[in-house]
Amino acid sequence: MSPGVVEPCVVIGQGLAGDVEAHGEAGTQWYRPEVIELSTVLVLAGVVFIVCGLGVVVVQLRRGDTGFGLLRGESVETRRAVRRAIRDGETDDARVDELARQTFRMIPRLRWARYFFAGMFVLSIILLAVGDHTAGDTVLRVSQALLWAGLIVLDGVNRRRRDNYRGLRPTP
């Protein structure tokens, strides 16, 4: 590096070009600084962010806290009963029915979501089909397509469960 030149990088340790020349003969390097580009730092920060997010999700799922706050404060058995009632479409317990209906009211109905997910899925497939890609690009495009396909399926399942929920079972 020459003096006065600004490069987008993070330098770890000491040993800029001036320091190397001061410690050794011109042209020889005793100490080579490790240079990490800014893009590498940003990617590593993103990886750390994703790993932390996955850790939170795993801890929440292991404890049974799905929905991230929709049924917070309820017992594990009650949350399981509400999930079962939503999955089956009905329940015998009036309290579970009220909590299931409350859960449905708290989840926003985004009618445009399925079209957005479908558009992003198609865009991901187009980007995958067009041009030359490295292995990393291909993995990224395939993972994006899988993400949007999964969101389309999840949206469909949630809509079906909301539309099919009947509430309390009729007593014979």
TrEMBL record:
Keywords: Membrane, Transmembrane, Transmembrane helix
Source organism superkingdom: Bacteria
Transmembrane segments: 38-59, 112-130, 142-158
UniProt KW Transmembrane helix keyword: yes
Record-given protein name: Uncharacterized protein
Organism: Winogradskya humida
